[in-house]
DNA sequence: GACTAAACGAGACGGTACGTCGAGTCTTTGT
DNA sequence: ACAAAGACTCGACGTACCGTCTCGTTTAGTC
């Protein structure tokens, strides 16, 4: 939850600062990386004074998270191709494209590098991720409605199964992630879904089919 | 394993220091977390002087990575139950147990929190992971030999498919990981393997079937 | 006078710090001596933080020199008794008193102990000394005007001849310097001056006599 | 075997070390200056291990003083021209030459830069100086015997009067010291001596003339 | 259109940790 | 038995950045 000021007096004023600092933060992050990201540099890049930054964000980490959250929460194209498989493929490709770029790499790294301390931050990271998942859920829901997937299919589970191998490669192994990776993920996910392995919790203890 | 000292003189000498500092590092990490991990504190805890630490490790981060690498490269029980499914289940459970403990959490976090800068460090992290995977591969190989899995099954691929959902939950969503998570992962992996989706690269361009 | 404010803001602010640190520096110097003079101790004594000291003075040595320069450049009573001999005597006594005290000893020692490296510092030391000489010159000038000394008498030369034996004893031999030393110096100087040995450079190549 | 080795082991060995270290010390001092003179460098330059240096000299400062004392106590030409004035002139010129060279400057500086702490060191410095003076005293004594100077002339006083202005310039003002400086010093000293101002302490009281 | 209060610019400051350097000491090993 | 080799302790150095504080200077909204 970024700065939510109820319309007191200062309305149109700080918005420009906020935007400028956000941009500067992400830019610095991309240029120098997390370790070398100083508040002072960000401030200077934003054409603003250090104190001003501290007036709006308690912390360097909070600033980062806020900036990234905003940066990520933008345009996520939720695909709707009419078939779950192509939808998932579009989704997977979009993730791959987002994070296999240098920019994406930097962002990913930053989200983990400024992480452990402050549960607040881990929480922020989780939220960003959850948010993205939530936005994609309708694709699964539609598939269920279309009868492509079983009624008790767990949308979140489907999506997690889809993205897990991609993130694994992005975060742990250094393998290049490309369309093939994405496609494989789709196939595995579809196989699992069709096998009835991605159902809602209550159905985890499989009785019949 | 990380620091391979060619048998110079100081074999029996510095070894004690090395061990003590490693232990102190991990201990501090668990106690205070990455952010509050000071070289000075580590040194003190190891009953050693700060400069001595700097003589052996260039950097705070390098020290951490080295300590963790050693800490992780220990006892990994490679299961051999006679059936691939139970082997995978054992493997998955072992990961879950390792990292769902507070200790494991701290280590995981640390491995990512000291990350982005120094590709050296990302590399170290990758190596630790790869190492663990490599040790588990025989389980898959044996299954192939037993005829449980297709001849062209990609062992690494199988294992990645297995662990991906677990790490996803550990790193991105904050969901509790438990036996259920592990079991689900096993089932998905088995389904994918049986569907012929986890074959070696050359077979990725499907000809037959 | 609103327009006459070149010295921007930080005038009244840092001045207090500057003074406090100067005082603390001299105090520490006197208490512990040059070798044991720590920036940290000085800072603490001044009720200021180490970094603040480093913000204003590049170096421990620079700090010392600066502090001493200020300390020495204070009130130097230029005597004016109406006769050159008594003026010189007053001057000599003043030097003796200044430097034969423990305090003076410490300062003297410090001025040389923090010396050789950094020509900057040798320069500073020279300046302090020159400054003191320059302030005393009027005494000689007046004597010339009164006809006590020859018109081409070199004031600086006179003063150097006066102080040389005193500093010799202070710096090289460890003899106690007292009034007798001072008086002897005066007599020697007077004798030399009257013998026309302390004339300006142009007269250094003596033609007459 | 015991009789076959007259200059046993520890005698011939240590002497060489001593000499080498002394030389290395002075060399380092001249090259880098006092501030940058480390025991380790000296040891290395002498082809000896640090520990060995510490076995023979308690201290860095003690080492320096010892080395310099040896270095200075060498060849001091005590002039004997048959006339006090020319003797003094020779003496003064010799001092000027010794210390106006870069080498001499470095030595001088070093003698003061390692000074304040350890009264032991100030003492050593004093001794070096006293030694030089003592060696020169015969020149004055001979002059007294020849009847050039009054019987109660204080030889030490004469010499100090002679060297004082030279050292003043060397240590305090940065003026170049040359033959002129030396000659002036001689003239002043002679004037003072002839005026009966440089007599032994007991004669300081009587005002006869 | 002037007035007032919040936001900003500027910059020093206290504080924590960093990584470095050199002085001396201690231990191990070779001769 | 001695000394070369080198690791270790200790203390200080100077640096970087964090986050705080104070004080003057805009500037935006209200009257």
Provide structural commentary.
The structure is a homotetramer of 209-residue chains. Chain A has 209 residues and is an all-alpha fold. Chain A has two domains: 46 residues, Arc Repressor Mutant, subunit A; 133 residues, Tetracycline Repressor, domain 2 (Orthogonal Bundle). Chain A has nine helices and no strands. In chain A, helix 5 runs parallel beside helix 8. The longest helix of chain A has 28 residues. Chain A is elongated and about 55 Å long. The termini of chain A are far apart. At the A-B interface, helix 6, helix 7, helix 8 and helix 9 of A face helix 6, helix 7, helix 8 and helix 9 of B. Chain A binds a DNA duplex (31 and 31 nucleotides) through helix 3.
Overall structural class of chain A, as computed from helix and strand content, comes to: mainly alpha
Distance between the termini of chain A: 42 Å
- CATH topology label of the largest domain in chain A: Tetracycline Repressor, domain 2
Report on the biggest sheet of chain A.
none
Mean pLDDT of chain A: 83
Domains of chain A, number: 2
Helix content of chain A: 55-70%
Fourth-tier CATH superfamily name of the largest domain in chain A: Tetracycline Repressor, domain 2
What kind of assembly state do the chains in view correspond to?
A: homotetramer
Strand content of chain A: under 5%
What is Rg of chain A?
20 Å
Output the helix-strand order of chain A. HHHHHHHHH
What is the 3D shape of chain A? elongated
Count the beta strands of chain A: 0
Number of helices of chain A: 9
CATH architecture grouping of the largest domain in chain A: Orthogonal Bundle
Largest interface: A-B, 41 and 41 residues
The CATH class of the largest domain in chain A is identified as Mainly Alpha
Low-confidence stretches of chain A: 1-11, 203-209
